[in-house]
Amino acid sequence: MESGEMAQPFRWTAGAYGSKFLTELRDNKKFVGVKCPKCGKVYVPPRRVCGPCYVELTELVPVSGEGEVVTYTVVSFGFVDPATGTQKPVPYGYAAIMLDGSDTVLLHFIDETDPEKITIGARVKAVFEEERTGSLLDIKHFELIRG
């Protein structure tokens, strides 16, 4: 049996709201959420339906690029990142972040790897890649706001 390359083409969409979210990240370095008309909950990333209310969501709203750490971990075991096909250097910080103006958390990398320097409730802000492609990885990481 020979070994070689195999193409695995696929096409998928992030949907109307997910596409708007990714386009805003790419083009404007800004976050958008979607607000429930019934309960007022703001979802980031946006989704089509409010889970608790079963209401279709249509109102896109701006959300801050700053927020707070809800929980976190420092990853010290390497694995191949399926988004890039390469192993991310360890250690690296990873956190659930509640952006100001959002009622849901966004999971992403943080710039700190010392668990003694990260706290629940720590303030963070988004740092964007110079070249952005319309993916969640357009956010390079969130950095701790010190001081």
Give the SSE layout.
Elements (H helix, E strand, L loop, with lengths): L14 H14 L2 E5 L6 E2 L5 E2 L4 E2 L2 E5 L2 E10 L16 E8 L5 E6 L12 E6 L10 E6 L3
Number of domains: 1
Please work out how many helical segments DSSP would assign. Answer: 1
The main sheet orders its strands as 8-7-6-9-10
Shape: globular
From N to C, what is the helix and strand string?
A: HEEEEEEEEEE
Largest sheet: 5 strands, antiparallel
What class, by secondary structure content? Answer: mainly beta
The unreliable regions are none
Strand content is 35-45%
Whole-Å distance between the termini? Answer: 60 Å
Mean pLDDT: 92
Percentage of residues in helical conformation = under 10%
Report the radius of gyration as a whole number of Å. Answer: 17 Å
Please report the total strand number as a whole number: 10
Task: Give a brief rundown of this model.
The protein is mainly beta. The chain has one helix at residues 15-28; strands spanning 31-35, 42-43, 49-50, 55-56, 59-63, 66-75, 92-99, 105-110, 123-128, 139-144. The protein contains 1 helix and 10 strands; from the N terminus they run αββββββββββ.
3D structure, described in words:
- This protein is mostly beta strands and 147 residues long.
- The chain has one domain (15-144).
- The chain contains one helix and ten strands.
- It has one helix spanning 15-28; strands at residues 31-35, 42-43, 49-50, 55-56, 59-63, 66-75, 92-99, 105-110, 123-128, 139-144.
- The strands form three sheets. It has a five-stranded antiparallel sheet, with no helix packed on it. A three-stranded antiparallel sheet has the order 2-1-5, covered by helices on one side.
- The longest helix has 14 residues, at 15-28.
- The radius of gyration is 17 Å and the shape is globular.
